[in-house]
Design goal:
By secondary structure, this protein is α/β, with parallel strands linked by helices. The strands form 5 sheets. Strands 3-17-4-16-15-5-6-8-7 form a 9-stranded mixed beta sheet, with helices on both faces. A 5-stranded mixed beta sheet has the order 18-19-20-21-22, with helices on both faces. The protein has a 4-stranded antiparallel beta sheet with strand order 9-10-14-13. Mean pLDDT is 85; it is low at 141-146, 149-169 and 546-551.
Length: 656
């Protein structure tokens, strides 16, 4: 019976498989350290396939590079033997919620999520640590310590005294920051849907490098923009300018598949512009704004230069030398290169005229001309209806001024939580609202901090009846013992985030919400840990005879059946937020995930017999997994697959 691999996918082998599909002659075999054969890329042959000029060595070319990039790429692709362990007592509505809070290093989390959420995330928002020159708490395996680096680069002597200034321009700071971010962005891209978007909040010290990093990861053609954001008003810090702005870098996975951004109308602007009220017709009482029908900046097209009749019977036309041959409303002429034109085609003009969508206003600007070429006192406007614009939204400007950081302090204070440097809920809600089709999508934040993203998703759902799901990842970074959060009893930032979601969810439901919303304010807490499987599971040939008993039970003694279930779900790519129920079949506990999507029995008593297997097969699950130590004898283990082929042929059977 086939065993589950019980570790994250080896992305390198997946990349090799894709190359083999395109260039099978560029894949060869070599021996691994253990003597087994494995597939590798013949890079010389691949270069020959891709170009008639080999680019290598010191030849100049455009690319992003820094010390540690290769190690970072290896870190992104290398598999890990880790798992996510459920923690019910820290969760809310564990059995029914669709939301996840993952506690642990986000590099590990992103690897573990590769198969389950590949291509399923609509939006990613991250607020990574701004590069201030401090050490990073994300201690990837390839990173060296500050002391080792400073000694190697002659910045500290053997006694630890600093030899050079610790400035933010040190290569170590940029290189270490890029090395930390690169594998995480590579893995995050895999999780995005083809029409997905990532938003990255970043300070000015790394905004340029982050853009280059995203160009390398997502492709420069998929850059949507870099939007400055007002962090605070006023201030008197800084030597040259007060640092009042940070940036949001926005990339699409595939910009051709990404819908246009639309923002809600600015209410102050609405009051100022939409100040006219329709007095007749079907739209009587509706607000509108006049918008000039003549736009000189548009391209001249043959059907867009014609006469329009004003209320007093006079005809007007945009400035130009070409005039229609007849003095008739709507008679057109092919314009010369310097002639002005209307925004609407002649056909569109007649349609809108019939709907009473034109406004004639006397003007002293002498914009339009008469058939004789003399200035007209009339100007022609179209009616832009406020109700239409509310439905369509407006293209957002590339500067965000509304959501200053001070708002986040008030939001947290309202929940009885004190935490610095959080982003405002309004900012995340605004960014989410720009994207189409988010109401039933997954939002990921793998630098979740105080869980602003979860708070924003819950508020949006409560407002519009959506079912946005969030997946948060936060390292259990210790709170400073001098911080207010520590004094309030929070040991880590992860604890602050979980408590914020609990309190925010209750408040949102109490104050009223959309009738169609499911009111899912819960979350499953999953903590990253070493694999549930003992080392012998991954390397049985290395078993010492003295440890022969591990063959009987290859699972670590401190792990529960639910721990095993979640590692199986990860391995099989089953959504970690699906509903789980536990049933008893012939006295044995069986987990059913999302009905019959997965059935798992981790009984280790050696009592699983053919009668039990037949009873389970009648449920016709899509997948089923057993524990090796659970079979009554080897005959049962051999017959399991045959029983399922007979009673439930579509079931995939595996064991651990």
């Amino acid at each position: 019976m086939e065993k589950l691999k019980m570790h994250s996918p080896n992305l390198t082998q997946g990349n090799i498989a894709r190359i083999r599909d395109l260039f099978p002659n560029c894949i060869t075999e070599t021996k691994a350290e253990d003597g087994s054969l494995k597939l590798v890329v013949d890079f010389d042959q691949l270069r020959q396939e891709l170009t008639d000029f080999i680019v290598e060595g010191p030849q100049e070319r455009y690319h992003l590079n820094w010390p540690g990039k290769r190690e970072a790429l290896l870190a992104a692709n290398a598999p890990i033997a880790k798992t996510l362990r459920p923690v019910r007592d820290e969760s809310v509505d564990f059995d029914t919620t669709k939301n996840l809070f993952i506690e642990g290093d986000n590099l590990d989390a992103l690897k573990l999520l590769q198969e389950t959420y590949l291509g399923k995330v609509k939006m990613i928002y991250i607020d990574p640590p701004y590069n201030t020159g401090n050490d990073f708490i994300y201690e990837d395996d390839f990173a060296e310590s500050e002391t080792d680096f400073l000694r190697r680069s002659n910045q500290k002597d053997e006694e630890g005294n600093r030899l050079v200034a610790n400035t933010a321009s040190n290569g170590r700071f940029h290189s270490d920051w890029l090395t930390m971010m690169y594998p995480r962005l590579k893995l995050a891209r895999n999780l995005l849907r083809d029409d997905g978007v990532i938003f990255i909040s970043i300070g000015d010290s790394e905004v340029t490098n982050t853009q280059k990093l995203c160009d390398d990861t997502f492709g420069s053609q998929n850059c949507i923009g870099i939007v400055p954001r007002l962090m605070k008003s006023g201030g008197n810090k800084g030597r040259f300018f007060s640092p009042n702005i940070d940036y949001i870098i926005i990339y699409a996975k595939d910009i051709e598949l990404t819908g246009a951004f639309k923002a809600e109308l600015d209410e102050e602007l609405v009051k100022k512009l939409y100040n006219k009220t329709e007095t007749q017709g079907l739209r009587r009482g509706e607000k509108y704004r006049p918008f000039g029908l003549y736009q000189s900046s548009l391209d001249s097209r043959p059907n867009q230069r014609y006469f329009i009749e004003c209320p007093d019977g006079t005809l007007v036309i945009p400035p130009g030398s070409s005039m229609p041959s007849e003095l008739v409303d709507g008679c057109k002429v092919v314009p010369e290169s310097n002639d002005g034109c209307w925004r609407w085609s002649q056909e569109r003009y007649f349609e809108e005229k019939a709907k009473n969508s034109l406004v004639f206003i006397k003007s002293s600007n002498d914009v339009l001309i008469t058939p004789a070429g003399t200035p007209s006192k009339w100007n022609v406007y179209t009616k832009i209806w406020l109700s239409d614009r509310h439905e369509e939204g407006q293209t957002p400007i590339n500067f965000i001024s509304k959501f200053e950081n001070r708002h986040s302090a008030k939001e947290l204070a309202a929940l009885g939580i004190n935490f610095d440097f959080a982003k405002p809920v309004g900012l995340i809600k605004y960014l989410t609202s720009l994207i189409d089709d988010t109401k039933n999508s997954i939002i990921l934040d793998f630098f979740s901090g105080s869980a602003t993203t979860a708070h924003a998703a819950l508020e949006l759902n409560a407002e519009d009846g959506g079912e946005r799901r969030y997946v948060l990842v936060q390292l259990p970074e210790p709170c400073s013992d001098k911080s207010e959060a520590f004094k309030a009893g929070y040991k880590s930032i992860a604890e602050i985030g979980k408590e914020r979601i609990r309190r925010a969810g209750k408040k949102i439901v109490e104050r009223g919400c959309h009738e169609k919303w499911s009111k899912d304010i819960g979350f499953r807490v999953l903590k990253i840990d070493t694999s549930n499987m003992a080392d012998v599971y991954y390397a049985p040939d290395a078993l010492d005879k003295a440890k022969f008993d591990l063959f009987v039970d290859n699972i670590k003694p401190d792990r529960t059946p639910e721990d095993l279930l979640f590692q199986v779900m990860l391995d099989w790519g089953v959504d970690l937020a699906l509903p789980i129920i536990k049933q008893s079949i012939q006295g044995k506990d069986v987990f059913f995930v999302d009905g019959n999507a997965l059935a798992a029995c981790f009984d280790a008593s050696g009592s699983i017999d053919e009668v039990f297997v037949k009873e389970l097969a009648k449920q016709e699950p899509l997948r089923v997994v057993f524990r090796d130590a659970g079979y009554k004898d080897s005959a049962v283990k051999i017959n399991v697959e045959q029983i399922f082929k007979l009673l439930s042929p579509a079931t995939e059977v595996k064991c651990i």
